[in-house]
Amino acid sequence: MADIVSLHPEEPRGLLLKDRTENVLRLTLNNPPTNALSIAVMEALLAELDAIAGMTDIRVVVLAATGQVFSAGHDLKELTVHRDDEDQGRAFFEKTTRLAADLMLKINGLPQPVIAEIDGLATAAGCQLVASCDLAICTDTATFCTPGVNIGLFCSTPMVAVSRAAHRKQAMEMLLTGETIDASTAKDFGLVNRIVPKQYLQQVVNKYAAVIASKSPQALRIGKEAFHRQAEMGLEEAYAFVTNVMVENLLLEDAQEGIGAFLGKRMPEWKGV
Hints:
Blueprint: E1 3-5, E2 16-21, E3 24-29, H1 39-53, E4 60-65, E5 69-71, H2 76-81, H3 90-109, E6 114-118, E7 121-123, H4 125-132, E8 135-139, E9 143-145, H5 156-165, H6 168-177, E10 181-182, H7 183-189, E11 194-196, H8 201-213, H9 217-231, H10 235-250, H11 253-263
Parallel strand pairs: 3-4, 4-6, 5-7, 6-8, 7-9, 8-11
Antiparallel strand pairs: 1-2, 2-3, 9-10
């Protein structure tokens, strides 16, 4: 059974469901019918990720959603209500977009790898959420889009994550046309890693999560951080950076244990955190 996470007394209960199996934590968006990323949902998810960041016994996070829509992105009704504010909604719009940016950055900077489990539509900031995760596995009926241009609102903030996950021209295609792409196209574009039949989605995600969670927690933490940092560097700078990372990694006890286990033809016993 999933536990309902209520991080703030004023929030509606059930916006975020939490289920843990050994070293893997599953967070499930539960904001029907579209799992819109309202202020409350983003704050709940951010608070949970903040807590997870310091939990060395959690090695992998899975991000899933209930219902037929993974996430429809920002809550447009919530945004529209604030157009009647004295500033025509500027302060609320800034709060929403900055909170979304903080959420995506938190996923990027989280020590644990994050796997997106997508069944259904991931659109706008929902597509941004998928693109921000380290891995993405979807059903063969999942769909993706950045449709802001269709309503006079270019998906500028989703563009940051999508353009870093998908190939440049494919990302522009999504952003300029606003058209929905199927799972196969999303995989070709680089948005998702694997496509599986609906009935096997959670099983496959759990397998990936378990495999990753079985690795050295020190190596996972160092590797994820180094991956994202070197990706923003020039070639020579990246090699200089990862050379230092590799040396520091070799000096850690998990590397000593792992190499010793490999040479001794035994299973390693990870001790690092």
